[in-house]
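Re: the 306-residue chain
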Amino acid sequence: MVGCQKRRTEEETQDICAPKFQRKTLIAPAPFADEISCQCQAPHEKLTITQARLGTPVDRPVRVYADGIFDLFHSGHARALMQAKTLFPNSYLLVGVCSDDLTHKFKGFTVMNETERYEALRHCRYVDEVIRDAPWTLTPEFLEKHKIDFVAHDDIPYSSAGSDDVYKHIKEAGMFVPTQRTEGISTSDIITRIVRDYDVYARRNLQRGYTAKELNVSFINEKKYRFQNQVDKMKEKVKNVEEKSKEFVNKVEEKSHDLIQKWEEKSREFIGNFLELFGPDGAWCPDRTLYGSNWLLWFRGFWNKA
C-alpha cells in the first residue's frame, strides 16, 4: 500500500512538472508567463550542459531562456529561437521580450510597439512561453522565479547598461549556451533599406490611400510624389498602348497573309471555271452553266467572298 501510494505520488509530481502548454504552440499562440505559473513542486536541480544534452532529467524538460527586443520580427530571430529550442533533446523555450520603456532607454526607438512584439513571438512555432516586460539584466531572482536552466544567446559580448557584457555572470555560472547569428539579416538592415528607398515607399503608401500627415510628408513632397505617381501611370499606359499596337500589327499581318492565300486560291478557281466556258477548240459554249447574266452573278458572288 505504501509502495502504491509512493508510486502514485511520483506520477502526480511528474504530471505536474510536465509542460502542459508545450504542444499547444503548434495549434495556438504560446501563453504569456504571467497568465500561467510553473506548478512544479519538485526541487529544481541545477543541471550541467552535458547532463542536458544527454536528455536528463527524465521527469521534466530543460527550461531554456532566450531574450531580446525582436523588433520587425524576421527569419534571423526565428532561426536563433530554433537553435535555442533544439539545443537539447527535451527542452521548453521561454522567450523574454523587453518593454518599450526599457528598450527606448537602453537601445533606442522601435518600429513595433511592445504589444506587437509580444504577439509576434507568441506566433513563432519554436516558442513555448513568452515573458512580457523582461529585465535587461538577468538577476538570480528572475532565474529562480521562472526555473531557468540555461540562457541562449549569440556568443558576441553584448555591451549595454554600463556593462561590457550583460551575460557575463550567466557565462561564469555555466548557464550560457551560444547560438549562431544569421548573416545578412537584422532589424537594422531592414530599417536601412526603408530609409534608403524612402521615396519609393512614401509614394506607394500615398497611392494606397495613406495621408501625407500619416506619413509625415511635407506639402511640397506630397505634391512631388503624387506627380511622380501620375507620370508612372502615364508611362504604364504608353507601354500598354505600345504592346497592344504590336499585337494589333501582328494580327493584321497574319490576317493579310490569310487573305492573300485565299485570294490566290480563289483566283485559280475563277480562272479554271472561266476556261470551262470554252470548248476544247476555244469556241464559246452557250450550253454551259455559266452563261450570260448567270456568269455575272457567279463572278459577283466570288468577289464578295474574296
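The longest strand covers residues 62-68.
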